Each structure stands twice: as structure tokens, then as C-alpha cells.
Amino acid sequence: MSNSGRLKSQTGMYHVIIKSHSHFNLFEKENDKIKFLRLLKYYQKKFQFSLYCYCLMDNHGHFLINEQNSNISIIFRDVNRMYSNYLHNRYSSYGPSFKNRFKSIPVESDSYLIQLSVYIHNNPRKILRFRNSPEKYQFSSLATYLNLKDDYFKILDTKKILKYFGNTDKMAIANYRQKMELDIT
Fold first, then answer.
1. What integer pLDDT is reported at residue 90 of this predicted model?
2. What pLDDT, on a 0 to 100 scale, did the predictor assign at position 97?
3. Of 2, 43, 51, 129, which has the fewest CB atoms closer than 10 Å, so is most exposed?
């Protein structure tokens, strides 16, 4: 069975979802998540795409990106291939690491962009200990949005989304925090 073609975004923005193959977690340890973010940074330099937000869970990951003048298929083909090689070497595993190819959903409106950022940042609420404090989850960009930690990997563009929440950084952060609390999914 062949894969159908990807829907092309008119804005260049996509919600990208990666999922593990059913037999294991995509990210077994924190170091695996760090490795994936380092690979993302490497390919961001190579392909010059913008990353607006992300969340890496144990068996999947969400990303909100703008491919700029690159190609989403090539970006994530390369990131996922390198990460899969890393997993095979680290865990002496073989076979597919990802469930199918990654999924990319075009983001064509500002309202969907905002809704999606909140959805991605609320993902850690699925973990019991982060149910009431998703900003404490280390492998999400939410804490950077709320100015609770620096963007360690220097891969985020938070201004694109925060500009919808206020004219000053302080106002935007407060309004984004409020939106997160209102939109618990």
C-alpha cells in the first residue's frame, strides 16, 4: 500500500506528530528526548525552519513548525532517520522505530495556530503528576512560553504565538497562562 501525498500548507505551518512503533516507547529515557531535541536543532540550522512549540511524550511527539523555504517531508525524514539510527545503536534494536511516517497537518488560520499551541502544551496533563502543572514537564516548550525557563536548545520562536496574547511580554505571558488554564483538554 502506498502513502498518500501530504497536504501542502499555504502558510508553511504544520502540526507534526511522530509516534513510536507499538512495541516500545520512542523515548525510553530523558537522554533520548535530549538527543531528539539536539537533532532537531541540528536540522533547524541546516533547513532554517521555525519551531513554535513542542512536546515530547514517551511514545510520541508534537511539533508546531513553519517549514519556511524548506520541505517538511525532508526535514522530518532526516530527523527521524537519524533518531532511529541512534535508537538502534543505543538499544541494540532493529526494525522500524516509528509508527508509519510522521503525520503533518497544515495550519492555515491564526485561531487554529493558537488552539494547537495550547493543545500541544497541555499534553503533559495526561501524566498524573503534571495534571495540574504542565509547565513543570521538562520536555515541553510551555515553561519557555511562561518565562519559567530559558530555551536551552535555542530552537524556539515564541513571539509568533505570544503576539496574539498581548502587546507587552508580561501581558502576553499572563494571558497565555490564562488560556492554558481555560482550555484543559
1. 84
2. 66
3. 2
The answer to whether 66 and 50 have CB atoms below 8 angstroms apart is yes
As a whole number of angstroms, the distance between CA 119 and CA 13 comes to 16
Distance of CA 151 to the CA centre of its chain: 13
Which amino acid, 85?
A: N
- Domains, the chain, with CATH or none: 13-182 (3.30.70.1290)
Grid coordinates given for 78: 532526516
Q: Which residue has the higher pLDDT, 73 or 185?
A: 73
Q: What is the DSSP letter of 97?
A: S
DSSP 88: H
CB atoms within 10 A of CB 113: 20
Written as nine digits, the cell of 39 is 537533532
Burial code (b: 16+ CB inside 10 Å, e: under 16) for 149-171 equals eeeebebbbbebbbeebeeeeee
